[in-house]
Design goal:
Oligomer: single chain
Largest sheet: 7 strands, antiparallel
Structural class: alpha+beta
Shape: globular
Helix content: 25-40%
Strand order of the largest sheet: 1-7-6-5-4-3-2
Number of helices: 3
């Protein structure tokens, strides 16, 4: 593994780590923020246990693709890790690794770090952009949900 095959995104989110952690394991809620727009997750299935699968079906500009993986670590509310393979990659059998680390940051905030390792070299730039956009979308979703709870 070389550093140029790693994407790292950090973002402060407006909720404590346990709330952010739960977002990553809610397949219905993830439909709102997973996948950088205009791409959209149309179906997400996951079994939040180590060794169990996840799948994200995606529509992107008239094309359908999917991501598959398996959970390798679940440490609520600090960290989750899962493998990641994409049907649209030149070699869809390549497995990369996503680590989401959550740390308390200020009052009721979380510093979220997404690190995606072992990416195919040609996928690094698109995943840097994608995870950055997903982090923004997740923050917006959390803010909107908090606003609805306060209304």
């Amino acid at each position: 593994m070389t550093a140029d095959r790693v994407v790292t995104v950090r973002r402060v989110l407006p909720a404590p780590p346990d709330v952010v952690y739960d977002e990553w394991l809610d397949p219905v809620g993830m439909l709102e923020w997973m996948c950088p727009r205009p791409a959209r997750a149309v179906k997400i299935s996951l079994e939040p246990s180590v060794g169990r699968p996840l799948r994200i079906d995606i529509e992107d500009d008239g094309s359908s693709l999917y991501v598959t993986g398996m959970f390798v670590e679940l440490d609520r509310p600090r960290r989750l890790r899962f493998t990641w393979s994409c049907s649209a990659w030149a070699d869809p059998s390549v497995q990369s690794l996503v680590t989401v680390t959550l740390a308390a940051h200020g009052a009721d905030e979380t510093m979220m770090t997404i690190e995606h390792e072992q990416l195919p070299p040609e996928e690094v730039d698109s995943h840097q952009h994608g995870w950055g956009t997903i982090a923004v979308q997740l923050g917006k979703t959390i803010r909107e949900r908090a606003g609805k709870r306060q209304s």
